[in-house]
């Protein structure tokens, strides 16, 4: 999967470099997932808020990583490519604990796998 991620990052960099001149555009989505918060004494609303916040933070950190990864592939420095490129749009989607890989988790390893990030790269045009 790391090879696929590296290829997608390189392709995003290519779209940023051309800035849509060749009719290619990219939409980037970073989806953050959380594990359930089973802390005793919390209300359902408090648990949900905690899970939502954790998934948002996770997606935000992954988005920061992606920004830097694309910067590392650019030939022409463009430190604000995510806000200055007309050929790239992006989204952060926090899911809370709504989509667990392991429900219910029975080990700390399964809880770690519930806490994850997905990158969704969509390319349009050329």
| Individual helix count | 4
CA(first)-CA(last) distance = 24 Å
The major beta sheet can be summarized as: 3 strands, mixed
**What quaternary form is this?**
single chain
Q: Tell me, briefly, the overall form.
A: elongated
> What is the string of SSEs from the N terminus onward?
HEHHEHE
Q: Into which percentage range does the β-strand content fall?
A: 15-25%
Helix content: 40-55%
Structural class by secondary-structure content: alpha+beta
* Poorly predicted residue ranges: none
Q: Describe it for me?
A:
This protein has 126 residues and is α+β, with helices and mostly antiparallel strands. Helix content is 46%, strand content 20%. It has helices at 2-18, 44-73, 81-84, 108-114; strands at residues 24-32, 88-94, 117-125. Helix 1 packs across helix 2. The protein is elongated, with a radius of gyration of 17 Å.
Summarize the structure.
Helices cover 46% and strands 20% of the residues. It is of the alpha+beta class and 126 residues long. The longest helix has 30 residues, at 44-73.
């Amino acid at each position: 999967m790391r090879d696929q991620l590296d290829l997608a990052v390189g392709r995003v960099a290519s779209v940023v470099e051309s800035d849509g001149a060749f009719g290619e555009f990219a939409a980037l989505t970073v989806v953050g997932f959380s594990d359930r918060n089973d802390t005793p004494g919390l209300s359902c609303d408090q648990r949900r808020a905690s899970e939502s916040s954790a998934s948002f933070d996770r997606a935000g950190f992954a988005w920061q990583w992606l920004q830097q990864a694309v910067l590392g592939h650019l030939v022409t420095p463009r430190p604000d490519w995510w806000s200055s490129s007309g050929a790239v749009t992006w989204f952060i989607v926090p899911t809370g604990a709504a989509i667990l890989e392991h429900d219910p988790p029975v080990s700390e390893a399964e809880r770690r796998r519930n806490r994850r990030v997905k990158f969704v790269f969509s390319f349009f045009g050329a």
